[in-house]
Amino acid sequence: MARLTALEKQQLLVGSANGLFTRSISGQSNNSDGTVTFTTSTDHNFVVGDYVILYDTMDDDNEITVFNTYSSVLQEFEVTAVTDDTFTITISYKASASLTDLKARSVLTFNNEQMKIGNKDYPVIMIEGRNTNRLLNNANQFIPSETEFVLTVMDKISHHTKGRNTQVEECRKFCEVKLNLILTEFKKKIISDKMRRGEFDWIDVPISFTDVRIEY
Fold it and tell me: Are 210 and 175 in contact, with CB atoms under 8 Å apart?
């Protein structure tokens, strides 16, 4: 079996993370209180306090190509309640909205090399690959299986609304929840048992981040 290149490994991880936080919607119900509950086609990984984007189609570069019938402008909606196969958000109810291709996503995932930072939405996961123990042979440069990846999960501090210090603390915890869901899905060896955490401004938005190194 041919060994995967570092980029191919990144693409597999990106696809897995995208699938984990993307679900097709199969039904909706009006709760008569300004909220709508969407039923997903399969169990999902959304959590209360998450922010989902509803969209019709998304291409391989994670660019939304068709806006959904609920909104002509890309928006994030806070998840207020979940069950295994439903999530509830505050949105104007539209019984006529077509759910044929409607999807929800709460995490946008990109290869670090391919990411266009200036026009992406939040939250986002950056997967950065670094080859360890690269060896030279007669034919070419050999990339062993011990490829190291840094997964960085980021979220808007403004998504957590109880004051600056509490916002930062809650945002860190929320990023850790997402990261742990991804690590559980990947089932890869963790290089470091320490999660690096911090805050910075990404473009002009205050962000909290958590990252960890794994081995493919």
Answer: yes
In the CATH hierarchy, which fold is given to the domain comprising 22-105? Elongation Factor Tu (Ef-tu); domain 3 (2.40.30)
For the chain, the structural domain boundaries read: 6-13+108-215, 22-105
Is the Cβ–Cβ distance between 110 and 126 less than 8 Å? Answer: yes
pTM for the structure as a whole: 0.83
Answer yes or no: are the C-beta atoms of 125 and 153 closer than 8 Å: yes
Q: Are 52 and 97 in contact (CB under 8 A)?
A: no
Please state, as a whole number, how many other Cβ atoms lie within 10 Å of the Cβ of residue 184: 10
Q: Quick one: what percent of the chain has pLDDT higher than 90?
A: 44
Distance, in Å, from the CA atom of 179 to the CA atom of 113, rounded to the nearest integer, reads: 20
- Terminal C-alpha separation, the chain: 16
pLDDT band at 72 (very low <50, low <70, confident <90, very high): confident
Among 166, 147, 125, 137, CA closest to 214 = 147
pLDDT at 116: 67
What pLDDT is recorded for position 56? 87
Q: What are phi and psi of 65, to 5 degrees?
A: -105, -25
Checking if the pLDDT of 122 tops 60, the result is yes
